[in-house]
Amino acid sequence: MSPSSPRSLVDVRPAVGRERLLADLVPPRHFAEATFASYVPDPAHPSQQRALQRLAEVAEALAPSRGFGSWLRRRPATPAVYLDGGFGVGKTHLLAALAHAVGTERTAFGTFVEYTNLVGALGFAATVDALSEHALVCIDEFELDDPGDTVLMSRLLRELADRDVALAATSNTLPGSLGEGRFAAEDFLREIQALAARFEVLRVDGEDYRHRPVVTDAGGLSDDAVRAGTAGHPGATCDLFDDLLGHLSTVHPSRYSALLDGVTLVGLRGVRTVERQDEALRLVVLVDRLYDRDVPVLLGGSGLHDLFTPAMLAGGYRKKYYRTLSRLGALETMGREVAGVSAGDRPTR
After folding, report:
1. Same domain, 94 and 242
2. Claim to verify: residue 164 and residue 216 sit in the same structural domain
3. Both 109 and 224 in a single domain?
4. Residue 118 and which of 5, 71, 107, 197 are 20 to 30 A apart at CA?
5. Are residues 158 and 40 part of one domain?
């Protein structure tokens, strides 16, 4: 490989231990500077201002008590808040702002998938013990994809709440509707209702701030443009799309973050429609980690055009897929700017 050739993600075999998994439970790089002051509510959607004010109150309630006799004061109920709204309305910004206001050293911040992965890696009891050391546990992109996750998360939240750990979550689905369209939700209604009962729901309305006309239907660059855009760029990677999808099947999703260590630009050649659900869901997790880290991308092949099948975009995971298209569209725009490529480098269709 010449000095200017980018490396390949397919060649990376990340090893992740307990300490790394716990250390990674912080607001992602994309929201490292998120504060309540930097969140600008849209006047056209008053629910944004209401959510902002309520989270500021939660942060104040979780502030460490100070002064003589503070231990005698009656402690308020431990907060549990749930931000519901469409993708791109700033829910993760608000959640990260809450984490920063409470203190990242007192907060565990991760996606739903990262917490289920943590239980798989550490075991349930060890996960509860580790998370109980925090005043607040933030759960971004709360999703229930199967019955096992429903029971697992319900039990985890119950045990954390019993230990006076405050909870805050975001999702595109109201708590009582979690699981709908994905499995026989009626069989697990008790668990779903138990989850819903724990949260104060804060609706966050608005438009996707990442939205651009090209977000869900942009064709890809030429593969030569992807190679040229990544060549000589420090920290860049370049892979065939099919090779990367195959590699992701051999790496546990808990390691996708480590897979991207040191990566500053991702190039994918030969992007096509993903027709298998398992491959599509792995891609969703990878894009979330790319977005967390603000890693730009260059897409060859068909790009975002028909990345997911119509059946996927109409199915139970559709909100995940639309979130992925929104985020990937933003990262692709960044990638073209970083690499200095333009729409003129797209192949003719």
Report:
1. no
2. no
3. no
4. 197
5. yes
Of the candidates 145, 168, 203, which is a domain's last residue?
203
Query: CB of 282 within 8 A of CB of 205?
Result: no
Distance from C-alpha of 173 to C-alpha of 45, rounded to nearest angstrom? 18
Torsion sign over Cα 329, 333, 339, 341: positive
| Cα–Cα dist 55/338, whole Å | 35
- 183 and 249 inside one domain: no
The DSSP code for 106 is: G
pLDDT of 102 = 97
Sign for the pseudo-dihedral over CA of 195, 116, 165, 92: negative
Check the CA dihedral 245-249-250-253 and report its sign: positive
Largest Cα–Cα separation, the chain? 73
Distance CA 204, CA 172 (A): 10
CB 267 within 8 A of CB 237: yes
pLDDT exceeds cutoff 70 at 221: yes
Summarize the confidence of residues 92-118 as an average pLDDT: 93
47 shares its domain with 168: yes
Do the domain assignments include residue 14?
no
Q: How distant is the alpha carbon of residue 102 from its chain centre?
A: 20
Other Cβ atoms within 10 Å of 200 Cβ, number:
12
**Which CATH number does the domain housing residue 72 bear?**
3.40.50.300
Rg for the chain, CA atoms, rounded? 21
| pLDDT score of 184 | 38
Distances (CA, A) of 149 to 22, 142, 157, 330: 20, 11, 12, 30
Is residue 299 within 8 A of residue 226, CB to CB? The reply is yes
Helix or strand (DSSP H, E) at 139? strand 136-140
* Residue 11 domain flag: no
Most confident of 145-149, 187-191, 293-297, 341-345: 293-297
105, 133: one domain: yes
Statement: residue 186 has pLDDT above 50? no
Calpha distance 216→324 (Å, rounded): 9
What is the model's pTM?
0.78
Burial class (CB in 10 A: 0-12, 13-18, 19+), 235: middle
The whole domain housing 316 covers 210-343
